[in-house]
Design a protein that fits this description.
about 675 residues, alpha+beta, 5-stranded antiparallel β-sheet
Length: about 675
């Protein structure tokens, strides 16, 4: 018997390996960056990897454990850490790290099917589940869908094995599974509570039995064990978490849209297809028909026992909630991806129904068809579906398909994220920058998350939130002008769809307000670069804050009483004059430096000014008489690198005696800015 079970385990492993290998191939081909929730989850994973074990002090570890994210529990992100350690940090590694949860999902589905039928039924259920497009599509994404499904499969299996909490061993394991699910996402409760309440009712209906005390004790042990495990994260965050969850549920600004668009016409074809899961991106039509047929047989012919009721309530109640109640926060559309964990029950009922067919030849034909059609549609969707179209995710319809389907096929779209990032990096005024992006699209979201990884400062979310460490807090429209006034760069879009959810009233209002606020302050910015995407159909315009007029002065030598020094007149150094730029530039040797001798006419206070041009962050140290007076000078940006782009900037104040002094400029690790002149302006005697 053990050898036979080992055979099934080997087949399960091969099924998982099949999907993982194909996922690697598809992810290698796909070039679409992570955006919205996926991008946020990726950044959170990196934060945990970089900070959770940065100190061996327990207090620091505990702090990072519950504070990196106060909205999403940490388990799914921490699970990626070994993968990052072995294969390095990348988007593909983050996605493939879900493979561990995929293994758990397939294994516990097998155990579920085996418990309700036999090992063959469990194997068929596992195969079916893995070939549902809604499952393999999301196994290639960074969403929490697969980790959540694994937690649901584990909990339902352990719950049914408790035998209404008569088994202490499985009661403890069930308690562990509760913590497992809640540390992935609090949404897990929607999948768990219907079945758990059913079992609680069953426990108390048997309270007159002799072993009621032991059953109650097992039940309390399960809840206590699960609660203790989740407290380190939930206890510090519960006060903030509950209002945020309630806000997303009851204060969802798209409820009016949802009620008018969906509830007034619930019998439209598209909605019915989604509600019945007869969609390519959920179950595939053939699998849907099989499930509906065997579900009806299951309801009519199966005896009404606890196991049957558990399946029905665990399927129907979350199904109704996710198909009729919970909408996507920004767009107001339904969220079919949340029904994916229910496919565990769908696969188990379908497999059990197939294996109970009495005619052997009929049963074999259906099993063979399930396998062949499953593999066939797997590769068919790879070729025909997924991230299609040149306008992909720039409009509402294609974005919703993606968040409903997962990644069914790879798409090579160059959004030129790196080019935009490089333009900002090469033209930043300092290491700390604020970037505001208008409007709210998957592309700008992907760019926003990427900026969070390369910038040291805050990055403004393209809608109305300020991102710091991948967590966002909404700010009112009245704060938009202030957000723009703090921005060093503003990115806007021309062409294509302005937003993927233009018909969402509150988003439209927010984007219009943000755009208007920018137009009012646009004179404070200059157009740095236009990035052409899709052959002119879409352009990203990069604006950089202009140098304030009062920060650059015209010091021609007659401004105040002082000394004008031409930068080329150093008595020691390695800078070189470039006739093309008309300025003294870096000579290619590090450190780059220039030393000047000056004679001051009076004792007193002086201002040191420098005239230079730079579009990159090239900090320079300034030494006066061998003493470091400024560690990061010459850091203001101009519009270019030539003499016509050069401007005067005040660098520091000097108290000095009359006589000879030395002035030294040193760029230790970066090239030297392009410099024209230095002036020492006398202020007081």
């Amino acid at each position: 018997m053990a050898k036979k079970n080992n055979g099934y385990i080997i087949i399960l492993f091969l099924i998982c390996l099949f999907h993982i290998v194909n996922n690697i191939i598809i992810l290698k081909q796909d070039t679409v960056p992570l955006f919205f929730d996926e991008g946020g989850f990726y950044n959170l994973s990196i934060l945990y990897y970089r900070h959770l074990f940065s100190s061996l002090k327990i207090a620091n570890i505990f702090h990072h454990f519950h504070s990196i994210s106060t909205f999403y529990p940490p388990l799914a992100f921490i699970a990626k850490m070994p993968f990052f350690a072995i294969w390095g940090i990348s988007q593909d590694t983050s996605v493939l790290a879900n493979s561990s949860f995929f293994f758990l999902l397939i294994y516990f589905t097998f155990l579920m099917g085996k418990y309700f039928g036999d090992a063959k039924s469990g194997l068929l259920a596992a195969f079916l589940l893995s070939f549902y497009p809604g499952v393999f599509g999301f196994s290639r994404t960074n969403f929490l869908t697969i980790p959540m499904a694994a937690a649901v499969a584990m909990s339902l299996y352990f719950l049914i094995r408790t035998e209404a909490f008569r088994s202490r061993k499985f009661s403890i394991l069930f308690g562990f599974s509760i913590a497992f699910g809640l540390l992935i996402k609090w949404l897990y409760l929607i999948y768990l509570i219907p079945a758990l309440l059913l079992f609680v009712f069953e426990v108390f209906s048997k309270r007159k039995e002799n072993n009621f005390g032991a059953i109650s004790k097992n039940f309390l042990i399960a809840l206590t064990f699960g609660t203790i495990l989740i407290l380190p994260w939930y206890l510090p965050n519960i006060k903030n978490l509950i209002p945020m969850v309630l806000s997303g549920t009851y204060d969802n600004p798209n409820w009016e849209y949802f009620k008018s668009f969906v509830m007034k016409n619930p019998f439209r074809l598209g909605f019915l297809k989604q509600a019945l899961m007869i969609e390519q991106y959920q179950l595939f039509t053939y699998y849907s028909v099989l499930f509906i047929y065997f579900l009806l047989k299951y309801i009519i012919l199966k005896k009404n026992d606890l196991k049957k009721l558990m399946f029905l309530v665990s399927l129907s109640i979350p199904y109704l909630i996710f198909n009729f109640a919970i909408t996507e926060y920004y767009s107001g559309d339904l969220c079919p991806r949340y029904t994916v964990p229910l496919f565990i029950i769908v696969a188990t009922i379908t497999a059990e129904g197939i294996m109970e067919i009495k005619k052997k030849i009929t049963r074999k034909i259906i099993i063979v068809s399930v396998v062949l059609i499953g593999i066939g549609q797997f590769y068919w969707t790879w070729i025909s579906y997924g991230r299609e179209g040149g306008r992909y995710v720039f409009n509402r319809e294609t974005f919703q398909r993606y968040t409903s389907r997962g990644l069914l096929s790879p798409k090579q779209i160059d959004w030129k994220i790196s080019e935009i990032i490089d333009a900002i990096r090469d033209n930043r005024i300092s290491n700390k920058i604020n970037v505001l992006i208008i409007p709210h699209t998957p592309m700008t979201s992907a760019l926003d998350y990427k900026l969070q990884l390369v910038s040291q400062g805050s990055v403004f979310f393209p809608l109305n939130a300020t991102f710091i460490g991948s967590e966002y807090g909404f700010i009112p429209i009245t704060k938009y002008k202030e957000a723009i006034s703090k921005s060093d760069f503003v990115l806007t879009q021309e062409g294509d769809a302005f937003s993927y959810d233009d018909d969402s009233a509150w988003i439209r209002e927010s984007i219009d307000a943000l755009t208007t606020a920018f137009e009012e302050q646009k004179s404070s910015f200059s157009l740095l670069k236009e990035v052409d995407i899709y052959g002119g159909r879409l352009k990203i315009l990069i604006y950089r804050r202009s140098i304030p007029a009062d920060s650059a002065k015209d010091l021609s030598g007659s401004q105040g009483e002082g000394i004008l020094i031409h930068a080329v007149d150093f008595y020691e150094g390695n800078l070189v004059y470039n006739s093309e730029f008309g300025l003294l530039i870096d000579g290619g040797v590090s450190p780059a430096y220039a030393v000047y001798e000056i004679t001051l006419p009076y004792d007193g206070k002086y201002e040191l000014w420098a005239k230079y041009a730079t579009r990159d962050f090239r900090p320079v140290e300034i030494y006066f008489d061998g003493t470091l007076r400024k560690a990061a000078a010459l850091t203001k940006f101009t519009q270019g690198w030539t003499y016509s782009d050069s401007r005067w900037f005040k660098e520091l104040d000097i108290d000095a005696e009359k006589g000879k002094h030395t002035l030294k400029f040193v760029a230790q690790k970066t090239p030297f800015p392009h410099i024209d002149s230095i002036q020492i302006v006398y202020k007081t005697k």
